[in-house]
Amino acid sequence: MTDYRIFNNDDAMRFADKHSELFGDHSKLSAEEFGDGNLNLVFRVSNDKGTSLIVKQALPYARCVGESWPLSTDRARIEAEVLRVHARFCPEHTVEIRHFDAELSAILMEDLKQYTILRTALIKGKQYEHVATQIGHYLAHTLFYTSDFVLTGPAKKAAVAQFINPDLCQITEDLFFTDPYCNHERNNIHDLIISTARELWQDEALQAEVAALKADFLSKPQALLHGDLHSGSIFVNAENCKVIDAEFGFYGPIGFDVGSLLANFCLNYLGCAGLLADTEAVTEHQTYVRQQCLTLWQVFAEQFSQLMSQDSQDPMLRNSLYQKQFLQQVFADAIGYAGCELIRRTVGLAHVADLDKVSSEQQRASIEKQAVELGRRFITQRQSLNSIEQVLDLLPL
Amino acid sequence: MTDYRIFNNDDAMRFADKHSELFGDHSKLSAEEFGDGNLNLVFRVSNDKGTSLIVKQALPYARCVGESWPLSTDRARIEAEVLRVHARFCPEHTVEIRHFDAELSAILMEDLKQYTILRTALIKGKQYEHVATQIGHYLAHTLFYTSDFVLTGPAKKAAVAQFINPDLCQITEDLFFTDPYCNHERNNIHDLIISTARELWQDEALQAEVAALKADFLSKPQALLHGDLHSGSIFVNAENCKVIDAEFGFYGPIGFDVGSLLANFCLNYLGCAGLLADTEAVTEHQTYVRQQCLTLWQVFAEQFSQLMSQDSQDPMLRNSLYQKQFLQQVFADAIGYAGCELIRRTVGLAHVADLDKVSSEQQRASIEKQAVELGRRFITQRQSLNSIEQVLDLLPL
């Protein structure tokens, strides 16, 4: 770490120039920094012909809080290595990593400037039909090919060790599974739903189910997860989707990635009632989002099943009855984690714009209560829900 | 590894002398090597006053097979470190490690020459009443204090990485969970039960359950297991028990350790009908073994419950309803793993003397068939068996 320094625009330009054949000495480069959120510096470096790349550097603390919350810059390595592994199995929907420098904790990657962030698109009511199909494919392939179905025992253990990610996992362990279920100072609860939050703090039956989901998050290294697959981690354009931001990646339960995205669709489903212009637009958009949830699970399940049946390497795990039971448990896990995401995005520290942008406080409160109630049902009913259709029947009309 | 050399008696004496205050320059030392089994050299080094210590050195291959089966000597580090961790939480029932040398892959440890191996005692029909109580205590304390109930996320992840044990885990993955369910050349099947073995190879419903248990063995790092807790890994005398041989240790499902020992009691229960002199002796010994199984689970469950309720650190895992469900799942896992142990000790590579010593081939075949059938019931009924009493009701009278 002796050579680590926080990049300015010039550093970012030099880094991009050095590690890419796109620029060259005589090109006229420019750089602009734009925040990606909380933990990193992100620069767009462009030449005078309009070609550009992204330089992302991990800061040694959480940017939103400041230097008081130290955070290992090893997360840049995790991000680069997860995305490279995922690109091996699904290059079409994974952002391309061009270079990673461990000492600088800096990544040079493809610029997706022709794309929009999925959350932004959804909030505007845009409807890209291919999202669920493509991300279902991404999930099936990245999760299957990093799992026990394919890797030998020794290879799997080495991969688990490579992706041990204590700092970032602890953020999830706390913000996702603990804070929303107690009166924690980090929580961010709008005044009008404080009684809804209090109910969560007192619901021991719900908390027992969340504890089981947390225990699996801690101790169920089934596959190399993205670890933070919400609609802000997906870029979309008219034809394609690309997944970015894998710094929360680690070996965990497969249902976590699937459930995270399902929940973000559900949050948008609920929020759009307060975001879009008229009832007709809301109905149309909700029909689209519902269909995306359905397709996401169907495509994931179908492709994951096919991969299990055709490409499993472990002789015992080739058993088709076991594979069916395995997928059923992934489904229950996914619905449970979706429930946790719905709750923590409503009463926890980090909210989503899909709800926070609802301008009427009354309407926002009513939607937030729906989100918490939906989350509760997902968590408590996850083992008895038998199909994605049954899950979607729980969405308010 | 440059300094690694295979010990002779002189090396073992020098090693013991150098790392212990028990001997001293002028003591007259002697050493004898005695096989512990398959993977290591074991020396007893004694001085002329009768004080002795054990020197155990890992060989870079599996001794029973020869140099053709290479095996990492890192297992000596695993063994020493697992036993030291376990001794922190249960010193009274864990063999004391005096010194470990990484380059030589050699361990200096307490000599338990006043003790007998539990399997040897059981085969002779000896009945030590304290075994189950003490090992139940050992299991509850070593497994609880290395689990997510106690360790923070980062501490747990570091511990998982410290105890990644690919070579030895692969032996279990193959011999325990795969070979017995197919016609593998490593299997060791007595002629008279070949049809029983064939039934295992064709039973897809059973194999699906074994696949689920194998998947958990691969991906459920709940606690730091001993990893090979059969009755040959326990020393016993009139007052005490001590656990040895932890080279298979790793982070795995808690039920695996509990189930391994339960199965070894059951194997002795079945075998003693062909080992002891008369019907009365058999009945008496079987009553004792049945009681040991009962006590083992009861003591483990009671103490583990108490530890969960009094000493859990993770706020979500303090939930008593969750703790109850957790223990119930450990029970089902334990019965499942016990079933796998019963089967692999009968038709797999490594048998147990409790069955192999039955001199009548007909009687041994009949007992082996009972062991396989009991294993099958354990595995397939594990989720519906509600108490240890119900499990013991499956034992033939």
From TrEMBL, chains A, B:
PANTHER family reported for this sequence: METHYLTHIORIBOSE KINASE
Domain Aminoglycoside phosphotransferase positions: 31-267
Enzyme class: transferase
Family stated for the protein in its record: Belongs to the methylthioribose kinase family.
A GO term for molecular function: S-methyl-5-thioribose kinase activity
Family annotation (Gene3D superfamilies): 3.90.1200.10, Phosphorylase Kinase, domain 1
Entry keyword set: ATP-binding, Kinase, Nucleotide-binding, Transferase
Signal peptide boundaries: none
Subunit: Homodimer.
Assigned EC number: 2.7.1.100
Pfam families: APH
Name of the molecule in the record: S-methyl-5-thioribose kinase
Species, as recorded: Alishewanella maricola
InterPro entries: Aminoglycoside_PTrfase, Kinase-like_dom_sf, Methylthioribose_kinase
